[in-house]
Amino acid sequence: MKPPVFAQMLAPVRGRLAVAVLLQALAAVAGVVPMIAVSEVAAALLGGGARPERVWWLVAAGTAAVLVSLLCAAAASTVAHVADNALQLRLRRDLVRHLARVPLGWFSATNSGQVKKVVQDDIHSMHYLVAHTLLDVTSVVLTPVTALAYLLGVDWRLALVTLLPLAAGLALFARAMSGAGPLMAEYGRAAGEINSSVVEFVDGIAVVKTFGGARGAHQRFIRAADAFHDFFSRWSRRTTGVTTASQLAVSPVVVLIVVLGTGLAMIGAGWMPATDIVPFALLAPVIPAPVSGIGTRIQALRGGDTAAKSVTALLAEPVMPRPSDPEAPGEGGVRLRGVGFSYDGAAEVLSGVDLDLAPGTVTALVGPSGAGKSTLAKLVARFFDVTEGSITIGGVDVRRIDPAALYRTVGFVFQEVALLRGTVADNIRLARPDAPLEEVERAARAAQIHDRIQALPRGYDSEVGVDAEFSGGEAQRISIARALLADTPVLVLDEATAYADPHSEARIQQALSAVAAGRTLLVIAHRLATVREADQIVVLDSGRVVEKGRHAELLARGGRYARMWRAQEPAQESRRTDTVVETP
Ligand SMILES: Nc1ncnc2c1ncn2[C@@H]1O[C@H](COP(=O)(O)OP(=O)(O)OP(=O)(O)O)[C@@H](O)[C@H]1O
After folding, report:
1. Which residue of 56, 206, 389, 518 sits 20 to 30 Å from the alpha carbon of 149, by its own alpha carbon?
2. Domain map of the chain by residue range?
3. What region holds the ABC transporter domain (predicted)?
4. Ligand 1 atom closest to Cα of 344?
5. Residue nearest atom 18 of ligand 1, based on CA coordinates
6. 245-277, pLDDT tens digit by residue?
7. Which residue's CA is the nearest one to ligand 1's atom 6?
8. Among residues 397, 361, 388, 392, which one has the least CA distance to residue 538?
């Protein structure tokens, strides 16, 4: 049988955990000693002829054992928590180090959710396992074993009888759990269905209500809740009886009835002295007690193992190879030769793309949705590595450039702007934390956002999310200021389509014109009106370059671009006054 994954993960702190488990074992054994002492005292007193000094010795031993047990348990918990801290620190460091090396493009919304779950929830599950469950299991096993060992010494026959309720409890528990695997999977499915229908309902409530679908979405939730209820009723009907019988079998009353009944019969038959019943009355209920908490402990161990598997899987995500002998990116443009790319190794998203972005020029990428525009743009900033061909900057392959140097060379302005917690100035300074405020302001002015920032209560020191809230268009202009300050010679930008307000849009376009000055710009354009003046327009379709040229040339050619232009023409007319991304 393969050892559980968490066992391998605990290897670095195995020594400390062994010490913690040993201390807990001492605590568990010492915890039984006072009960043994009391039963010995009681037996001695009941039997008559007890020597006072023996009784005092027993009292002293019992008291000392209580102290030892408490101290050992506290020490075990401390050592386990220290081990847990060390493990968490190590895992978090490993995760951060690893995540810094996976391709940037890997961080899609889904994967970011996965990272959040692993770093927060799974590491927490592992904390529970390392700092609590292992010690808990140790005492739950050793306490009854110690009690049983003592009782075997008193009277082995009656000691074996104390095992009967334990055996019955375990057998009933096993019966309740037989076939639980598929049922647990069904439980997971039913609970998941409820969760997703609630999320769907809440997330989409505006859309759902506007389009009159509230009833439908509501129905889905009600159906999921009903299904969960049905499942739960079936589960309860199937297991409640057996689980209750199992709990009853190990309850102190039943244990005492069985053990004392048998004991009294044995005394009556003259098989054992009457005083020997005392230790059994005190210690027998301890023996089957662990059965009542077995379910939660198995659950905790399983949870820890599942969490360890997720952490292992995240640590196994392929990383981007780093150049062993990196080169500095050369001066000059960006060149793509025979570029092919596939996300899954099967479906080709890009193939045979040849493209030259001459220094200081604007290249617009256009094409239908899903043509591969964003993918191509991301390859330039090495969010992923090409599957075929090569991308060079100033003659140096991007794979041979140190990532930090690459990010100083290629900047990105996304449609989805991420403003981080911190001051507005820090947000603009992201790439150059030491940039003086004058430069920050100059960038903000060029990005058409300076006045808005000045109007905030604390100006550039206002905190995003605290006393600075920005609209989508404003946030985009901040990200443009960020790109201006970063001052990368190559800039990739995903043109915003979301900001329909003409005023905001015109200001974004002005800001983009400032960005274009003197830079090699690759812009993903959704509206052709914004790229009329580009030095080069590249039309992508199904991952291939189907046309390339300037606006007038492409129109005159009457091909794909001309058709797209005509299709968008009414929109172009209404936006004719827009500023475009102009060549400097
Ligand atoms: N992270 C990803 N994993 C797998 N497939 C992806 C991923 N991102 C994009 N794709 C797929 O690659 C193809 C090209 O997508 P891409 O986003 O590059 O197109 P696009 O031209 O930018 O589209 P749009 O204009 O709609 O943004 C699509 O079929 C898309 O489903």
Report:
1. 56
2. 1-154, 334-574
3. 334-567
4. 4
5. 372
6. 888 888 889 999 999 999 999 999 999 888 888
7. 343
8. 361
